[in-house]
């Protein structure tokens, strides 16, 4: 369990330092020298779309193949190595070279997200069903702490480069990619050493790609049979879109209200470190009151965050909202993962978690555009926060129709 959870500690450094932190800043100021902010944003948007679409198309197929071959762990390691190498090479991309930087970023994103498909699916192998909620929460908690610690170190180095032996802030920021790659690779070792995947029959190892594609087609064709799984995936798509939009748009929203960059960095750090104990607490809470009630508690807090966020005036309010988000963000993600694990056939976990991650990747289609449109339609960015309440409520209503008693048999075949 600890070996599995430590992988979240390892790869969350990429999510925090690279995705949310330094790559967007350097892409604007270092790799797109002389380009306007609007044009740079457009390039970054297309890059993220290409990376997201790539993994969205690959995830279900790879999951099905890994199920057939009993190779979730091996596939995880392959994608992890891809992500680690691409992240390390980002540190050497020269100024103005936005195409090489973008290409490496796409490879790193595919490595990160692809490995997560198999990491999520391995939850079923590392703990008995009655422990899934706790162990899932433990993974997210370790991720918040690990990612937050490395991000804090990288921020301190970028703000005080000479004190850390760097020529300037740019040198410190590019070195952050190398530090992230080393962190990711080293802390993946416990999973490689200690996590054991149940062996598959020898016959399942033959023609795994053909069999994997066939299994995927069969599951898509019969997905209506697994009605409860489909309802959950749609509910998850809606409410996790709102959760993700809060994460993606918080900095832009804060800047539009006039908050300083330093205040926004502090808020991100608050969310990371509050999220560590909170995710563990939610894992325990899921075992006591059930995952659905735990998810509802988190969504209710998010509704409150959206209402308060539309009214904030002072920095202390932004920090308070960061605390609230940290309290429930990891909990909603962790309980959603463990609840889903209880709905799917155990011997097709990789494939079904491929669909789960697919919905997560497609969860950028509604929230961010709706967030922006509400601000334009009503002439004030504060109204953007209210748009997310629609997604939270819609997801919550559908979640009420998910009943574990209707889950499919624990084996498809």
UniProtKB/TrEMBL annotation:
A molecular function GO annotation: transmembrane transporter activity
Origin superkingdom: Bacteria
Main subcellular localisation: membrane
Membrane topology: Multi-pass membrane protein
Transmembrane segments annotated in the record for this chain: 12-31, 43-63, 75-96, 102-126, 138-159, 171-195, 228-252, 264-285, 294-312, 318-340, 352-377, 383-403
Gene3D superfamilies: MFS general substrate transporter like domains (1.20.1250.20)
One of the Pfam families matching this protein, by short name: ATG22
Subcellular location field: Endomembrane system
SUPFAM superfamilies according to UniProt: MFS general substrate transporter
Keywords noted in UniProt: Membrane, Transmembrane, Transmembrane helix, Transport
GO CC annotation terms, alphabetical: endomembrane system
Chain ranges of the Major facilitator superfamily (MFS) profile domain: 1-407
PANTHER family on file: AUTOPHAGY-RELATED PROTEIN 22 (PTHR23519)
Protein name in the entry: Major facilitator (MFS) superfamily protein
């Amino acid at each position: 369990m600890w070996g599995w959870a430590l992988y979240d500690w390892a790869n969350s450094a990429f999510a925090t330092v690279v995705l949310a932190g330094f790559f967007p800043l350097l892409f604007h100021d270092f790799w797109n020298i002389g380009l306007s902010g609007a044009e740079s944003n457009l390039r970054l948007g297309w890059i993220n779309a290409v990376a997201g679409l790539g993994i969205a198309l690959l995830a279900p197929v790879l999951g099905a193949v890994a199920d057939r071959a009993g190779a979730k762990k091996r596939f995880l390691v392959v994608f992890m190595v891809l992500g680690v190498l691409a992240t390390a090479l980002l540190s050497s991309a020269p100024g103005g070279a936005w195409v090489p930087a973008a290409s490496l970023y796409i490879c790193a994103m595919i490595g990160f997200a692809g490995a997560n498909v198999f990491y999520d699916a391995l939850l079923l192998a590392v703990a008995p069903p009655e422990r899934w909620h706790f162990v899932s929460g433990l993974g997210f908690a370790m991720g918040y702490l690990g990612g937050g610690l490395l991000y804090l170190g990288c921020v301190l180095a970028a703000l005080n480069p000479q004190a850390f032996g760097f020529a300037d802030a740019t040198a410190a920021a590019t070195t952050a990619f190398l530090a992230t790659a080393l962190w990711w690779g080293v802390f993946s070792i416990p999973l490689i050493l200690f996590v054991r995947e149940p062996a598959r029959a020898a016959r399942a190892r033959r023609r795994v790609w053909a069999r994997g594609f066939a299994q995927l087609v069969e599951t898509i064709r019969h997905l209506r049979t697994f009605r409860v799984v489909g309802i959950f995936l749609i509910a998850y798509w809606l409410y996790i879109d709102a959760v993700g939009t809060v994460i993606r748009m918080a900095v832009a929203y804060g800047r539009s209200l006039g908050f300083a960059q330093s205040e926004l960095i502090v808020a991100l750090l608050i969310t990371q470190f509050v999220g560590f104990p909170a995710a563990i607490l939610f894992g325990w809470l899921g075992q006591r009151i059930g995952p659905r009630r735990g998810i509802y508690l988190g969504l209710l807090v998010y509704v409150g965050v959206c209402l308060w966020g539309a009214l904030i005036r002072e920095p202390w309010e932004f920090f308070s909202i960061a605390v609230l988000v940290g309290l429930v963000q990891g909990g909603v993600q962790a309980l959603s993962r463990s609840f889903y694990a209880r709905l799917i056939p155990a011997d097709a976990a990789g494939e079904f978690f491929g669909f789960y991650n697919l919905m997560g990747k497609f969860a950028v289609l509604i929230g961010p555009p709706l967030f922006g449109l509400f601000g334009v339609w009503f002439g004030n960015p504060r109204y953007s926060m209210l748009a997310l309440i629609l997604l939270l409520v819609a997801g919550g209503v559908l979640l009420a129709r998910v009943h574990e008693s209707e889950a499919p048999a624990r084996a498809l075949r």
